[in-house]
Specification:
The chain is an alpha+beta fold and about 700 residues long. Among the domains are: about 80 residues, no CATH class; about 280 residues, Rossmann fold (3-Layer(aba) Sandwich); about 60 residues, 2-Layer Sandwich (Phenylalanyl-tRNA Synthetase, Chain B, domain 1). The chain has 23 helices and 30 strands. The strands form ten sheets. The protein has a nine-stranded mixed beta sheet with strand order 15-14-16-13-12-17-18-20-19, sandwiched between helices. Strands 3-5-4 form a three-stranded antiparallel beta sheet. A three-stranded antiparallel beta sheet has the order 22-21-23. Helix 6 crosses helix 17 and helix 14 packs antiparallel against helix 15. The longest helix is centred in the C-terminal third of the chain and has 27 residues. Belongs to the class I-like SAM-binding methyltransferase superfamily. Trm1 family.
Length: about 700
């Protein structure tokens, strides 16, 4: 077949070797031709095959007689497998599995355990291998770690390791169906697959193959999280208007796309640090920095490679510090003004470290992607991670946001810090919470008081936060506005939480974010930010207006006035690194007490969930107008496209919905009968609602 013979060996010369078989090697041997196409293949295309792939059983036996030093790859055969006497060890089993024995016993072992269960392909046998070629995860039992040796096969074509014989047969069959031979596979595998370059927000990022599958890549990149990245960017841009420069941290960089956008568009206003524990991800982050003409700083030293790739006339846009360490360790060692946490899954393991060294009036943004637990699909996981009791409700997305905020608030309070929630977003793939840090035990105490339990009625889905106080109530059902406990049998309500019970949005900060999105041309999130502004004010879009002092420069966008200068920012926030004075803390507390009445009502109602059977509901925009005309605050919500956020009790909500609903066509009845029946029903409901309006409107839902 044109394969050169190896150097003669005394142990091998004494044993008969077939003319067509190559000389055996302890771990690797020269692969013979599998097809005529191999004869014309270049020498570098010919690779070595594993020792478990042989033509005859005698070839396996010869491997036990190989002495150390005759082959370069003798390290693949453990030196423990060789014995000075007539006892030989199995070349395909470790010493712990099969000890050295006589030659006749070794032959039976090779024939029964390896040769009989082999897979044949073009005259070769792929025997089962018990060597530690395939990594197996250890099983931790108590304090002992039992590492199980995994039996596997080595593919002669692509060198893959397959555990089961049936899977190996199917694997080889697929190679044959595709027409893949040894030479064609080697030619394709010698060239590494090129890395794809994606572009997002004028930032180029190089991604690995299978970048959108976390199980198949070290550097995960999800294109569906583009909205999340733009929200974080607008948050940082709004914070950069308050003080400069900002120490920013992307704790889980992966490809580094988020930190690259910060440094490229905000320039000298930010000092970006991108961290990742995986070495491959760190290398990819550095390559992406060079791709975007950004200098990489590692341990306060600039890498020289960034200057070499620049062409004439080009300049570095900014500097990025890339670190490789655990996120908890990094956040304990250094202090930052802005920290973004976006681990794969829950982020509760990193909250304590994030609040340990965050600077005063800094911002912490938390992205949680464990939506199966937050959206009440895995309730036991939510109890384990967040210590929260949760069920599936019509307002489950806002419930998830309040769970994450409560976990963030508890972590901040443990570090003697309070929080101010700037906004919370819960969409299909993630829950994003952005909070501002307020130092001091007073702020921490005020934050801890806003974590409460929720009473939820399982019949009508009415809900209300429990009253403050430590005294045990005789009948907690009295707190609910509904009367389901008296009219329905059994227990009708459950206790959910602990949850964040205060506001989820800061209107002023959202307006500044909207201005930054307009300034940087981020059109994708402008609609979402406007919805958040309307939701924070709990005002319909048609009636939304903001009155600001006339001496401030402002910009109007769809009826929303946005401040464009940072002159008034110094009135609300002090300089970087300084604590608040007692007078400022007192004024801030008074301001918070006066703004309680203007906070948006908690939770929302789904209009389809409370629709009346046999009646056609009004359009959502018209229904919002009807609720507003009845004297209630009302707005749409980003949590649910058919959700209505209002301070109206559920009884009033259903009454107004029934009043403006029209009956569907019933074939056997005349229109006059249907109309009269519906008018009588509406009259009864309206009279009931008028009698209960004074009591229901007086119920505080906080």
């Amino acid at each position: 077949a044109g394969v050169p013979a190896p150097a003669p060996d005394s142990a091998l010369d004494s044993a008969p070797t077939p003319a067509s078989a190559p000389a055996p090697a302890p771990a690797l041997a020269q692969a013979p031709a599998l097809s005529p196409s191999l004869a014309s293949a270049p020498e570098e295309a010919k690779s070595k095959r594993h020792i478990s792939i042989q033509r005859q059983l005698a070839d396996l036996e010869k491997l036990a007689f190989v002495t150390e030093g005759n082959f370069d790859s003798t390290s693949s055969l453990n030196s423990d497998n060789l014995d000075a006497g007539n006892r030989q060890a199995c070349p395909l089993c470790p010493k712990e599995k099969f000890r050295a024995c006589n030659s006749h016993k070794l032959r039976r072992h090779l024939q029964n355990l390896h040769w009989k269960v082999s897979v044949e392909f073009e005259g070769y046998r792929m025997c089962i291998c018990h060597l530690p070629c395939r990594p197996v995860k250890p099983n931790i039992i108590g304090e002992q770690i039992s590492s199980k040796m995994g039996a596997h096969y080595h593919c002669i074509i692509c060198s893959a390791t397959i555990t089961r014989r049936t899977d190996m047969l199917g694997h080889v069959r697929r190679h044959m169906n595709k027409g893949e031979t040894k030479s064609s596979y080697i030619a394709a595998s010698t060239a590494k697959p090129p890395k794809e370059i994606l572009k997002e927000a004028d930032t180029d990022v190089q991604v690995c193959p299978n970048y959108s599958i976390p199980q198949k890549t070290d550097s995960y990149f999800n294109p569906k999280m583009k909205l999340n990245r733009q929200l974080i960017f607008c948050t940082l841009a709004a914070l950069a208007e308050e003080r400069k420069p900002l120490e920013c941290l992307d704790a889980f960089g992966a490809t580094g796309i988020m930190g690259l956008q910060w440094a490229k568009h905000l320039g000298n206003a930010v000092k970006v640090t991108i961290n990742d524990l995986n070495e491959n991800s760190v290398t990819l982050i550095q390559e992406n920095c060079y791709l975007n003409k950004l200098k990489v700083v590692v341990d306060s030293k600039e890498k020289e490679k960034s200057d070499d790739i620049l062409e004439e006339g080009e300049k570095n846009i900014g500097n990025i510090k890339v670190t490789k360490m655990d996120a908890n360790v990094l956040m304990h060692l250094r202090s930052f003004d802005f920290i973004h946490l976006d681990p794969f899954g829950t982020s509760v393991n990193y909250l304590d470290s994030a609040f340990r060294n965050i600077r005063n009036l800094g911002i912490v943004s938390v992205t949680s992607t464990d939506i199966s637990s937050l959206y009440a699909k895995a309730q036991h996981v939510a109890r384990r991670h967040y210590g929260c009791n949760i069920v599936r409700t019509e307002y489950y997305k806002e419930l998830a946001a309040r769970i994450v905020v409560a976990a963030v608030a508890r972590a901040a309070a443990r570090c003697n810090k309070g929080i101010e929630v700037l906004f919370a977003v819960a969409l299909e793939h993630f829950v994003l919470v952005v909070v501002r840090v307020l130092r001091g035990p007073t702020s921490a105490d005020e934050t801890a008081k806003k974590i409460q339990y929720l009473i939820h009625c399982q019949w009508c889905e009415e809900r209300i936060f429990q009253k403050d106080g430590n005294m045990v109530e005789e009948n907690p059902y009295r707190q609910l506005p509904c009367n389901c406990h008296g009219s329905m049998p059994g227990k009708t309500a459950i206790e959910l939480g602990p949850l964040w019970s205060s506001s989820l949005f800061n209107t002023g900060f959202l307006k500044r974010m909207l201005f930054e999105s307009l300034h940087h041309g981020l059109d994708d999130i402008q609609t979402l930010i406007k919805t958040l502004i309307f939701e924070s004010e709990c005002t319909p879009q048609s009636q939304f207006s903001i009155h600001t002092p006339s001496n401030l420069n402002k910009q109007e966008e769809n009826g929303v006035f946005i401040k464009t200068t940072d002159d008034t920012i110094t009135d609300n926030y002090i300089a970087q690194g300084k604590r608040k004075s007692n007078e400022m803390i007192t004024n801030l507390g008074k301001k918070q007490k006066t703004d309680v009445s203007t906070e948006h009502p908690p939770f929302y109602y789904n209009i389809h969930r409370h629709s009346i059977k046999g009646m056609n509901m009004p359009k959502l925009k018209k229904f919002l107008c009807y609720l507003s005309q009845a004297g209630f605050r009302v707005s749409r919500t980003h949590f649910d496209p058919m959700g209505v956020r209002t301070d109206a009790p559920l009884m009033q909500f259903k009454s107004i919905l029934l009043k403006y609903s029209t009956p569907t066509y019933t074939g056997g009845q005349s229109e006059s009968l249907v109309q009269s029946a519906s008018e009588d029903t509406v009259t009864e409901r309206v009279e009931m609602s008028v009698n209960d309006k004074a009591e229901a409107s007086g119920c505080r839902r906080w």
